[in-house]
Design goal:
The structure is a single chain. By secondary structure, the protein is α+β, with helices and mostly antiparallel strands. The protein folds into three domains: 2-85, no CATH class; 87-207, no CATH class; 216-295, Arc Repressor Mutant, subunit A, CATH 1.10.10. It has helices spanning 2-7, 20-31, 87-98, 138-151, 180-183, 195-202, 234-245, 253-259, 267-271, 275-284, and strands at residues 12-14, 35-37, 44-45, 53-54, 57-59, 62-67, 71-74, 82-85, 107-110, 114-122, 125-132, 157-161, 177-179, 184-187, 190-193, 216-217, 222-225, 228-231, 251-252, 285-287, 292-295. The strands form seven sheets. It has a five-stranded mixed β-sheet. A three-stranded antiparallel β-sheet has the order 1-8-2. Strands 5-6-7 form a three-stranded antiparallel β-sheet, with no helix packed on it. β17 and β18 (228-231) form a beta hairpin.
Length: 297
């Protein structure tokens, strides 16, 4: 949820519009201070039919909206309260996660798009940690590239981003680009650095592997199907990685679950609680009644 809020142009969510499956994540973001109150939503989805956007209007003490299907519909103040991601919180947490000296101050290099998190000194080498977002937009990407040339010394940067690598247009850059959800993980309200991903970032350009699949990206935590993106957890990505390694062969559920160290009885159990992730799983994986799973061709 945090990545989506940072990546989307509006980047706002309204608590009352959330599905039950997203509410726990929202409450955690709010509790840890990762999101802040934003300007009230100018339009909301009709609470009666859930089909049309309506504009809230106040008449005296009554707040309502006009839906083309339902007519005048009462609206609560809570349904307008919007929240947005707090880049300052993220930059502070990234400095802590990377172990960057607290005296350093993050700097915005491109308004709303690119920040210098800080400079990390390791032995005699200094690496500049950058945070970028919304790179799939052409104009934003051009401004991002111009800033790299003008403000960042060549081959010193590590770019952490919220845009999926498949659409971020960064494959030609010599600096490593790693997705935010891969390089850090949320633990008790703080971000912790993923050592394996950091080690990958430190490798020379020619030793850093590229995407292993035309469908899966970001260590199998992202699937792109007919232009539609599906995001998955680390454990879910591990299922896809196991099946991909089989090169179309059938894999038994017990072997899969043992390999990814899961207590669930089969891969479906890992996906079924999130409708969106289950949809992505069904579009990419087949299985039978004998407990065998394989990737669709």
């Amino acid at each position: 949820m945090l990545v989506s809020m940072l990546e989307e142009p509006e980047g706002k969510i309204v608590e009352d519009s959330l599905d039950a499956s997203d509410r726990d994540a929202f409450l955690a973001l709010r509790e840890y201070g990762m999101i802040t109150a934003a300007q009230d939503a100018p339009w909301i989805l009709c609470p009666w039919c859930g089909e049309h956007d309506i504009e809230p209007r106040r008449t005296g003490k009554t707040l309502q909206g006009l839906c083309p299907e339902c007519g005048h519909v009462p609206i609560t103040n809570a349904s307008l309260k919007a929240w947005s991601a707090d880049p300052k919180w993220l930059l502070d947490q990234l400095r802590l996660a990377f172990g960057i000296a607290s005296r350093q101050i993050s700097e915005e290099l491109v308004p709303g798009t690119l920040w210098k998190v800080g400079d990390l000194r390791q032995n005699r080498k200094v690496r500049r940690i950058l945070f970028a977002r919304r790179l799939s937009d052409h104009a934003t990407n051009q401004a991002f590239r111009a800033a790299l040339v003008e403000k960042v010394e060549r081959d010193t940067a590590v770019i952490v981003g919220t845009t999926s690598k498949s659409v971020a247009l960064v494959n030609d850059l010599s600096s490593p680009y790693v997705h935010l959800a891969e390089i850090v993980h949320l633990r008790s309200g703080k971000l912790e650095l993923d050592k394996n991903q950091w080690d990958w970032c430190l490798k020379p350009t020619h030793l850093r592997g590229h995407d292993a699949s035309t469908v899966f990206f970001e260590n199998f935590r992202l699937a792109v199907l007919d232009g539609e993106e599906y995001e998955f957890s680390v454990h879910q990505g591990a299922v896809f990685s196991y099946l991909h390694a089989a090169r179309g062969g059938k894999c038994h559920k017990d072997s899969i679950m043992e390999d990814i160290d899961s207590s669930q009885k089969n891969p479906v159990e890992i996906f079924r609680h999130n409708p969106r992730q289950m949809e992505g799983f069904q579009r990419t994986v087949e299985w039978n009644d004998f407990g065998f799973y394989w990737l669709k061709r």
